[in-house]
Amino acid sequence: MIMPELSSVFSLVNYAFVLFFGIVAALYLADIGFCDHKRVYVLTLFFFGIAQLLFYLIMGESVLYKCYPFLIHIPLIALIFLRFHRNLSISAISVLSAYLLCTPRKWFGTFVAFFFDRNPVVSNIASIIITIPLLVLVIRFVSPYIIRLKYESRTTLLLFFLLPLVYYVLEYTFTVYTDLLYTGGAVVIDFMDSFLVVSFFILSVLSLKFSSEKNKAERENILLTTAATQAQKEIAQLSASQQQAAIYRHDLRHHMNFIQSCLDQNNPKEATSYIHEICTNLEHSSVIRYCVNESVNLIVSSYANQAAVNHIPMQISITATEFSRFQITDLCSLFANALENALHACQQTNPQSQRYISLKVYEKNTQLCIQIKNSYEQPVVFADDIPISRSVNHGIGVQSMISVVEKYHGVYGFFADHGEFRFQASM
């Protein structure tokens, strides 16, 4: 008689720990921490505990187990939804996930009881012992990810809702309301086999979809970042040129007075030298026209000036005239990153006499063709035919270039041999 009574006592205690685990885990998964809601935790555990105890004593363990969804789970979802104003999906996901994460308790208890002739008392004791460590792991490592679901799309929420829901339905269908899991034989095995395969297939497809969307978002983010950076450079250069032009217009009267003074004093050499100096400054401040597109021209002119300052010869040939089918931010990003990489490589090339950059842009069969060549000295490391950099904050430019070309369904190639690096693209 002692053993059955002992078994009932530990079974009741185990139910108490199950309730404790489920409520605490569900609240934490819904981003309802204990420190900020101590009163709610105490009252929730107390009233749910009283309801479960009375139901257990009056109706028995079997009926309690079958009525658990209506006695505990649905009211807990309602509490999170109504009291804490969480999204209904988040409320359901939190409770269903807590139920799912409670399963390892049963696994551990069954595993330990296996070595003691499957003694139910041992199973309950082992389940009780593992409850707190498992709950700590859930709060520490699982809850942060479930909490972030409130920022995700409905598709992601649906996925995380369906996973614990399907397990919940199958668990109650096959083990609580029926015993098909133990008596169904081949029917249950075939069903579970098919269900697992189909579930894995669906998850794989959704995973690929999410991965594709994430990669697309990352590429767009790179494009936006580089476009914004390049826009700042364009604005700075244009502003500097306009400011310099305003200064020259303002000083024009003073220049003319000085030249007139030189001529009046019969000093033509000084006047000629002064005129030559003014012309040189004007040439340096002007933007040379390399192509018909103003934005591309500004980018190319900017890097041509930088190349001249660094004593790097730069040959530019732009015969293409049709740029209207491309977004100007994409073109600026592509040319700016390619020329900046070329300029950076040339600056590390010694001696200076071996430095050079060549830019050729032309049209062929309605395709815009781009070819950039430059000298290099440092070894170029390739991964999957794409140059990579191990330096911090480097390599983003190459990814941005690739994103632009792929956006317009183009092809590209990177080549390095005999001290010459080449980038070619057609789109």
How many separate domains make up the residues? 2
Class by SSE composition: alpha+beta
Proportion in helices: over 70%
Distance between the termini: 85 Å
Radius of gyration equals 36 Å
Q: State the helix count.
A: 13
Low-confidence stretches: none
Q: Identify the strand order in the major beta sheet.
A: 1-2-3-7-6
Shape: elongated
Q: Beta-sheet strand percentage?
A: 5-15%
User: How confident is the prediction overall: mean pLDDT?
Assistant: 83
The topology string of helices and strands comes to HHHHHHHHHHHEHEEEEHEE
Descriptive account of the structure:
Strands 1-2-3-7-6 form a five-stranded mixed β-sheet, with helices on one face. It has a two-stranded antiparallel sheet with strand order 4-5. The chain is elongated, with a radius of gyration of 36 Å. It has helices at 2-29, 38-59, 61-83, 88-101, 103-114, 120-147, 154-176, 180-183, 186-264, 268-285, 294-309, 328-347, 396-407, and strands at 314-318, 357-364, 367-375, 381-383, 386-388, 411-417, 420-426. The chain is built from 13 helices and seven strands. The mean pLDDT is 83. It has two domains: 2-184, no CATH class; 289-427, Heat Shock Protein 90, CATH 3.30.565.10. The chain is an alpha+beta fold and 427 residues long.
Q: Which secondary structure elements does this structure contain, and how are they paired or packed?
A:
Blueprint: H1 2-29, H2 38-59, H3 61-83, H4 88-101, H5 103-114, H6 120-147, H7 154-176, H8 180-183, H9 186-264, H10 268-285, H11 294-309, E1 314-318, H12 328-347, E2 357-364, E3 367-375, E4 381-383, E5 386-388, H13 396-407, E6 411-417, E7 420-426
